Amino acid sequence: MEQTTDPISWLLEGDPAIRWQALRDLLDEPQTTYERERNQVASLGWGAQLLTRQDADGNWGGGLYSPKWKSTTYTLLHLRQLGLPPGNEQALRGCEKFYFRGLEKDGGINLFKSFRHSETCVNGMILSLLSYFRFPDERIHSVAEFLLREQMPDGGWNCERIKGATHASFHTTISVLEGLTEYGSTYPQALAAVSPALDSGREFLLQHRLYQSHRTGQPADPAMTYMHFPPRWHYDFLRALDYFQTVKAQLDERMQPALELLENKRGQDGRWGLNAPWPGVVFFQMEPAGQPSRWNTLRALRVLKWSENNAKNHQSPV
Fold first, then answer.
1. How does pLDDT run across 137-155, given as a tens digit for each residue?
2. 227 to each of 62, 224, 266, 273, 274, how far by Cα in Å?
3. pTM for this structure?
C-alpha cells in the first residue's frame, strides 16, 4: 500500500490500537464502528504481542513492578494505553497480583519488600489499572482513600512526601490524577469524594502552565518538553494535555504555552516525531525514535481538535 501524506489516513494504516482511537477521537465514528476495531487489540498487533508474553503465573516479565519496562505493572499500563477492552481475562489475572500482600496499614498497596508504606505514584498507577480493567475487589476503595489522604497543600502529590518533600511532583501528580479519574469513571458513586481532589490536582498543573517551574517560568525539566511514548511513570507536556483532553476540561489560558509547544513540534508533513524511549528493557519497540510517530500524531491531533472545539464553544457572541 502506498503511504499517504494525510496524517489521519496514515493513522488508519497503523495498528488496531491506533486505528480505533483515530476513529473515535478524530473522525467521530459511531461506537459500533470503533469498538469493532478496538476488539482486535487483543488478537492483532501490539496488544496481541504483549498478551502472548504473559507468564504462566499471570505476571509479565517475571515480576510485578520490575524489571522496567517488562513487568506486570508496566505491561498493564501499556495495554491500557492501547485500549485493550476492560474485563480482558488476561489483564484481570495480572491485576489480581497487585493484592498478593494485601493492604498496607496506610490503606494502600505496597509492592516493595524494603518499604513499610505504600508508594503514592505506584498506587496511582495501580488504581488506574484496577479501575480501567474492572477488577472486582472492594479493597480498591481503600487505595483511593489512601491517595486522597496523601494530597499535599499545593494540590498535587509527591511520593517523597513521607521523606519530607513539601512541593508536589509532576510525575506523581499525573499518575494519581489518571488513577482517581479512572476510579471516578468506574465508580460514579465516588465522584463526590474525589472531585475536589481532582480539581486541586489539575489546578496544580495549571499553575505551572503544565510544564514550567513556578519560580523561573522555564521548563521544570527539559525532558518534560519531549514527546515520549509510552511515558511509563514519567511526566511530559503532551501527557498532561492529553489528560485534560480526556476529561474534556475547559480551555484555560495557562495551557497556551504547552499548546504552542505542541504546534511548534509539528513536522512539515503534519505529523509529530518520537523522542528516544526511556531507558529500560522492553518486549519490543512499537515505533523507531527520530521518525514520525503514529502515537504522538494521534495524541497531538486529538488535543488540538479538543482545544479548537473548546475555543469555538466559548467564543463570545458577536
1. 999 999 999 999 999 999 9
2. 29, 8, 11, 8, 6
3. 0.96
